[in-house]
Amino acid sequence: MTKTLILLIVLISFMACQQKTGLVPKVASLSLNTPSDSVKLFGEGIISTRYNERDMAITSNGDELFYSLGTYNQSLRVIIHLTKKNNQWAEGEVMSWSGRNNDIEPFISPDGKSLFFASNRPIAGDTTREDFNIWVSTKNGDEWTAPIALDTIINTKVDEFYPSVGKSKSLYFTAAHPGNNGKEDIYISKMLDGKYKTPVPLDTNVNSATYEFNAFVSPSEDTIIFSSYGRKDDLGGGDLYISIKNKEGAWQKAHNLGSGINSDGLDYCPFIDYPRHTFYFTSNRHPTLKSRIENSTKFKEMADNTLNGLDNIYVIDLKAVK
Question: Quick one: DSSP state of residue 208?
Fold first, then answer.
């Protein structure tokens, strides 16, 4: 039995034990329709827990929800899938094709028929490769089919991350290909005649000489929210930035979303649920210690708390995003 499989079994068994003992609130209390005008934890005890959670995706009808769940040291990450029937959410389950490799960053296409994600699973039959590539699963009835890797014009031996797709089927993603603007950039690959074209980095109104990554693009492809690390106005470990196209269709200079959303930690993995006017993102922010931790019991309580410095998912009303 592989080490990653053992870790997965332990993780799932522990979650099942929590559910049986009543330590995890029932997902029936989960709501997508109560955003606040200030940043709040999303689904505390259900989605956001003491584990690593990141990367939200929600179908337009609000009946399916996807996110990434990782072990404490991120040695294994899986995509969790929740479904809602008769207005009740069922317990989240690992996607049928996830659980052996690091699967992260789910994204639902605007038509709801394709689930894109990034994974370091073997590609093209090459079991020696461990780089991240972009994969897609398609909807067949109530099931999501076995994933297929995108074309080699997208997937190279350099990591490709965080897919986002507009109504034109153009693909936006993160990579550090040779000849880019900075250390990591956001790329676009246009879809023409059913095929992806050579990816090109977005211009310097979005990309810079430092790190740009994890971009969410609106279905109409006129708004992009992404993370950047190392800019002069960065509030800490990486912030969320926004750029909107002008009337001529060019990206305007990106600006920081500000301290109402960003923190002194890493803020990333944006997602907009347009039907419910809600903005989600991931952050590893945690409270500043007000006093010395005096004993091991208090320390363990802090480590077992949702706000223990690992990734959580946060939510805010979209109108508060400026």
Answer: -
- Residue 231, pLDDT score: 94
Q: Which two tokens stand for residue 26?
A: 């029932």
CA distance 301 to 303: 5
- Pure H helices in the chain: 3-20, 296-303
Closest CA to 181 of 213, 156, 203: 203
Dihedral pair phi/psi, residue 28, rounded to 5°: -60, -25
Angstrom distance (rounded) from CA 238 to CA 227:
6
| Other CB atoms within 10 A of residue 152 CB | 12
pTM of the model: 0.90
How far CA 196 is from CA of 29, 150, 175, 221, 322, in Å, comes to 41, 9, 16, 16, 33
- pLDDT, residue 35, reads 79
Angle among Cα 44, 59, 217 to the nearest 5 degrees reads: 95
Give the C-alpha separation, 215 to 225, whole Å.
6
Report the mean per-residue pLDDT for the chain.
91
- Per-residue pLDDT band at 21 (split at 50, 70, 90): very low
Q: Taking the CA of residue 181 as centre, how many other CA atoms within 13 Å lie in the half-sphere pointing to its CB?
A: 18
How far apart, in whole angstroms, are the C-alpha atoms of residue 293 and residue 50? Answer: 19
Q: Containing H/E element for 145?
A: none
pLDDT in tens, 39-80: 999 999 999 999 999 999 999 999 999 999 999 999 999 999
Q: Are 203 and 221 in contact (CB under 8 A)?
A: no
Beta strands per DSSP E along 34-76: 40-41, 52-58, 64-70
Mean pLDDT of 125-150: 94
* Residue 47 CB contacts under 8 Å (≥ 6 apart), including other chains: 30, 53, 67, 313
